[in-house]
Amino acid sequence: MKNDVIVGLGSNIDPMTYIEKALTQIKTRFLSVNVSEFIFTEPIGFKHQAPFCNGAVRFTTDLSAEALKSWLLALEDALGRIRTENKNGPRTIDLDILVWNGKIVDPDVGERDFLQSALKALQPTLF
After folding, report:
1. Which residue, 1, 9, 88, 104, shows the most beta carbons closer than 10 Å to its own?
2. pLDDT at 34 > cutoff 80
3. Domains plus CATH for the chain?
């Protein structure tokens, strides 16, 4: 079964480089890839760091949600993401499943305007 997915991408360590690398891997692996605009936003939580570049990508996949999450975590690791105790700290890349088959599955969407804007661009019927 094909699953329709939207994944959020964010970075504040050399963001254009790491977002482009992540997008290249996603476009190589998945079908029907559409990309939102990317915008710079101020950090949330831990303020003493560089702004984040954020956007989203929509694609179809045969993977289950769990398998896709594992693939995204492996991609984050491959792109040098270092996980620290500070959940809101700097990172090379952050990849999160936001929408799964038309259902918003990430609670941050309701709190972050930049995520809502990206989702509206990729799937206007969500809102």
Report:
1. 9
2. yes
3. 3-107+115-126 (3.30.70.560)
